[in-house]
Amino acid sequence: MREAVRELVRPSRLAPGARVAVVAPSGPVPEERLQAGLDVLRGWDLDPVVGSHVLDRHGELTYLAGADADRAADLQAAWCDPSVDAVLCARGGYGAQRMVDLLDWEAMRAAGPKVFVGFSDVTVLHEAFAARLGLVTLHGPMAAGVDFIKNAGAQEHLKATLFAPESVRTITSGGSALVPGRARGVTLGGCLCLLAAELGTPQARPGARGGLLCLEDVGEETYRLDRCLTQLGRAGWLDGVRGVLLGSWEQCEPYERVRPLLVDRLGGLGVPVVEGFGFGHCAGALTIPFGVSATLDADAATLTLDEPSLR
């Protein structure tokens, strides 16, 4: 039997004046959006610092924010800097898979726990931080993301999670039960296509047994979502999952086409499933901590954490 998902170490919450580093592990970052995001962080009385290569562009592979080694170096330097309390990703896109194995995980483990925030392509790093560092991470909006800089709801939920995590121990969405019921487990997940792509890699967890699995995606046709869910199922990765939370499916096919697939692939798991939970690539995206024990109530569309996500 595969090992169950385990509860992870919670980093310390932030306080006014905390230094936060912004890095770009994936796609290129528009400077004007970065500056807007930094202004939001400064408005929270944080001290943001920007990685040396955040505004880089790869010379030939234009979908990357600079060379793999440089993107990895920025993340590692930020994490290992004792003056930095949190590391926030600037944006997603693609590229985390290319740099994750260039990180010195021993050095990062020695640096101790810190807050880490991101989503989408950053799913790769959420998995790696869980597997390599045993650390709670935050699936939340990114510093240069349009969904962050232009949405007060996304800003306020992330801010509350960072500064007053006890105030958001119960995360309430506007969702509804795809499969009714309640379940307890440890949160994990992220972007569906990245979770499927991580199978068999060094930082991949063996499966979602004992977990409350959060899934979302962007810009994928329904048959591609089917392929990813089917791959996770065939690999045994979904065996023993306790519950499923479904976030946004932005720029996918209309939801009336996506929903039957979700029912088909997830409805037979025999666990509660909630849809429309409001995290991922959507306006007002909620911040969801990964690696914490929680209770999912699919009928009420709530996720209640046993403890605040940050100490």
**Strand order within the widest sheet?**
6-14-13-8-9-10-11-7
Rough outline: globular
Low-pLDDT windows of residues: none
| Overall SS class | alpha/beta
Average pLDDT value?
97
- Euclidean distance between termini CA atoms: 32 Å
- How many individual β-strands? 14
Would you mind describing this structure in some detail?
With 311 residues, the chain is of the alpha/beta class. Helices cover 31% and strands 22% of the residues. Strands 6-14-13-8-9-10-11-7 form an eight-stranded mixed beta sheet. Strands 2-1-3-4-5-12 form a six-stranded mixed beta sheet, sandwiched between helices. Helix 8 packs parallel to helix 9 and helix 9 (222-234) runs parallel beside helix 10. The radius of gyration is 18 Å and the shape is globular.
Primary descriptors:
311 residues; alpha/beta; 10 helices
Describe the secondary structure blueprint for this structure.
Blueprint: E1 19-23, H1 31-43, E2 47-50, H2 68-80, E3 86-89, H3 96-99, H4 105-110, E4 115-118, H5 123-133, E5 137-139, H6 146-149, H7 152-163, E6 170-172, E7 176-179, E8 182-191, H8 192-198, E9 211-218, H9 222-234, E10 243-250, H10 255-266, E11 273-275, E12 288-290, E13 293-297, E14 302-305
Parallel strand pairs: 1-2, 1-3, 3-4, 4-5, 8-9, 9-10, 10-11
Antiparallel strand pairs: 5-12, 6-14, 7-11, 8-13, 13-14
